[in-house]
Amino acid sequence: MTTKKKRLVGLIAATTASVLLLAGCSAGGGEAGQGSQGSGSGDPQTGGTVHMLQNADFSYLDPSRGFDGGVNAFYRLIYRGLTMQAAGDAEDPNAIVPDLAESLGEVSDDGLTWTYTLKDDIFFDDGTPITSAEMKFGISRTWDPQVGIGSPYLRQTIDAPEGYQGPYVSGDLPTIETPDDKTIVFHLKKPFPEFDNVLAQPNAVPFPEGTGAGDEFIKDVIASGPYTLAEYTPGSLIRLERNEYWDESTDEVRKAYPDEWEFEIGIDGATIDERMIAGQGDDKDAISGTIGAASLPRIQTPELQERAITADAYCTTYMGLNTTKAPFDDVKVRDAINWAIDRSALVNASGGTQLADPAYSIIPPTVSSFKDFNLWETEGDKGDSDKAQELLAEAGLADGFEFTLDIRSQPLMQAQAEAIQEALKKIGVTVNLNVIETSVYYETIGTPSQQHDAAITGWCPDWASSASTIIPPLFDGRNITEKGNSNLAQINDPTINARIDEIGALPADEAVSAWGDLDEEIMGLSPIAPLVFGKAIFLPGENIAGYNPSTSMTDLTIIGLKDPAKG
């Protein structure tokens, strides 16, 4: 899955229970996407096997290729980097903390050089020591045209010679220096105060020099984390066992309670729900993705409610309004749409209050930059048709207009689109639905020449300590591309672009609130219509402990069994 497709997503609640969606990157208050409850009484104990039931296989075992919430969670079990996101139960799960490095990076006065020192006693799963050379090699794989299709942030921030194509094609990357076995120095293209976050991305991990070319890591891994691959049948089963060379004294985040993990793949979503509700046999030791909306009425019993955990929204579902096409080139028209939308109806269409909250910003509440504002406040979130009609009259469209809305061929998005149709009908606006096959949807709406007047989609940040992976990709006009475009509004406002640059140069702690202020400024131009923040409900097995699920990426490394002897 490409970067753009990874974050251009539909409402999480609609996702089948295919992969466990992780909190924080990767979603306020606490951790990005942290659940609203714990996982029941009892603490995780060492031993036993935790099972995970999922519909689809992970995208790639190779972290240079994979880049989505489910596989990123999996990677934390088998790979380590210089930094990482804090534990899912930490006081601030959005924080970035040292991993293989002794501390977060030391940055030069000009912000262009970042230096890290590796810990002692860190090894691959064959006992080979991890040095700065292996760290550099693993990171430089990101530039390989075949392998490096995952997270883009290393390439976007680290300087590299023009035309560099990774170690297999181009050899050494001179802009990453390794003056000794424990020191690694990065030279950046321009100051990037959140570079510690970049090195917490899944592809910033070490590999032995010379390994991993071509498809070598398609069915195998070289682990640096607490687990290594014991068995892999693509589309069916992944079994992890302990990495005997992982030293827990060097790892302050991963608890690695289970002796083994088993990922059961290729199970129908309804069957997964059925098994988690029944909770029999090994399923008492299992976790899964979100419970589907159709299964929610069945988990209202007191016994199941004790197990059920609600995770707050990490992603925002919204409708992009194409500002290059009339009448959405007029801010009054775009504002009228936002006033007219009945967000309470959208919540119902999205599965009800258990699965959605009305949205008025692009930054969701689980991201640290979230600012609580509502520019279109109405009683009961039902919209204001009178206000909307006033704005349309001012824009010369008192009799309304019609437009084409791109949606996926998927029931949830269809229901959301129909709620929009009904609300806008009240102000004389006709919404014609253009239903696009799911497999080509994001490619289509991400191609400006094929995009219609509006499109429903969603966005999840790549880390939740700020909105630096939300605002720039969605609203920086300089990022509009002919293919893979994420700025669906195609807004290119010099004031917004300049403010993005200003905030990007701020110290990370100052940038957090600045992004929230800019969110409010941008919403004042109505380039999009925020719709809902999608929540999710999870139902772990009764013997699971340490479970803090998220609508983005759940921290598997702190999960265990209450009683391994029951496994």
Protein model, in words:
A six-stranded mixed β-sheet has the order 14-18-13-17-15-16. The chain has a five-stranded mixed β-sheet with strand order 8-9-10-1-11, covered by helices on one side. It starts with a helix and ends in a 6-residue tail after the last strand. It is 23% helix and 17% strand. It has 15 helices and 21 strands. Helix 9 (343-349) runs antiparallel to helix 11 and helix 14 runs antiparallel to helix 15 (508-523). The protein has helices at residues 3-7, 69-78, 132-140, 153-157, 195-198, 269-278, 302-307, 331-340, 343-349, 385-394, 411-425, 438-445, 471-475, 494-504, 508-523; strands at 49-54, 83-85, 96-98, 106-107, 113-117, 176-180, 183-187, 227-233, 237-242, 260-265, 286-288, 309-311, 316-321, 356-358, 401-408, 429-436, 454-459, 528-534, 536-538, 544-545, 560-561. The radius of gyration is 23 Å and the shape is globular. It has a domain at 316-534: Dipeptide-binding Protein, domain 3 (Roll), CATH 3.10.105.10. The longest helix has 16 residues, at 508-523. The model is unreliable at 1-38 (pLDDT under 50). The chain has 567 residues and is of the alpha+beta class.
Question: What's the short story on this structure?
Answer:
Helix content is 23%, strand content 17%.
Which class of the domain at 316-534 in CATH terms?
Alpha Beta
Low-pLDDT sequence parts: 1-38
Averaged pLDDT: 91
CATH architecture of the domain at 316-534: Roll
The percent range for strand residues is 15-25%
CATH superfamily of the domain at 316-534: Dipeptide-binding Protein, Domain 3
Distance between the amino and carboxyl termini: 35 Å
Per CATH, what is the topology of the domain at 316-534?
Dipeptide-binding Protein, domain 3
Tertiary shape: globular
Largest sheet: 6 strands, mixed
**Class from helix and strand fractions:** alpha+beta
User: How many helical elements?
Assistant: 15
Strand line-up in the sheet with most strands? 14-18-13-17-15-16
SS elements, strand count: 21
Q: Could you tell me the radius of gyration in angstroms?
A: 23 Å
> Fraction of residues in helices?
10-25%
